[in-house]
Amino acid sequence: QVQLVESGGGLVQAGGSLRLSCAASGRTSSIYATGWFRQAPGKEREFVAAIRLIYGTTYYADSVKGRFTISRDNAKNTVYLQMNSLKPEDTAVYYCAAANTIRVVTSSSEYTYWGQGTQVTVSS
Predict the structure, then answer these.
(1) Is residue 40 within 8 Å of residue 91, measured between CB atoms?
(2) How far apart are CA 77 and CA 44, in angstroms?
(3) Can you tell me the distance from the alpha carbon of 115 to that of 2, in angstroms, rounded to the nearest whole number?
(4) Rounded to whole angstroms, how far apart are CA atoms 82 and 115?
(5) C-alpha to C-alpha distance for 22 and 4, rounded to whole angstroms
(6) Which of 68, 88, 67, 81 has the alpha carbon at shortest distance from 34?
(7) In whole angstroms, what separates CA 72 from the centre of its chain?
């Protein structure tokens, strides 16, 4: 059993920054990768970023590359998503997810555990 708790969402103006946190508890040793996904009203859930926890390998969607940074603190069992230069189109519910085994890090179906989601709203 793994539990994921997100924090850091909120309202920010365009061009601003926000940092999301995803704290994992339970059987955290079984987690090999963590990803961030987002979903806006009327749209499908889309991949944002992911990280392989042991090696620190990172992956980003083209839409956020250069603006978002995913990182981890293994000692704290926490993964972060630093979001800079935010745009109104970044507005969505952001979800943290974790996987035991993964091949395609951009696919939501690869992830076993999910957080509750946190709202990020970017105003123009």
Answers:
(1) yes
(2) 28
(3) 10
(4) 17
(5) 6
(6) 81
(7) 11
**103, two tokens:** 């091949």
Contact 82, 69 (CB under 8 A): yes
The secondary element (H helix, E strand) that includes residue 102 is none
Distance of CA 63 to the CA centre of its chain: 14
Residues 35-82 pLDDT 10s: 999 999 999 999 999 999 888 999 999 999 999 999 999 899 999 999
Question: What CA–CA distance (Å, rounded) separates 48 from 62?
Answer: 9
Q: Could you tell me which residues come within 8 angstroms of residue 80 by beta carbon, excluding any fewer than 6 positions away? A: 19, 20, 21, 22, 70, 71, 72, 73
CA atoms of 42 and 60, how far apart (whole Å): 22
Average of per-residue pLDDT across 21-28 = 95
User: Of how many residues is the chain composed?
Assistant: 124
Containing H/E element for 116? none
Contact (CB, 8 A) for 107 and 37 = no
Backbone φ and ψ of 9, nearest 5°? -70, 165
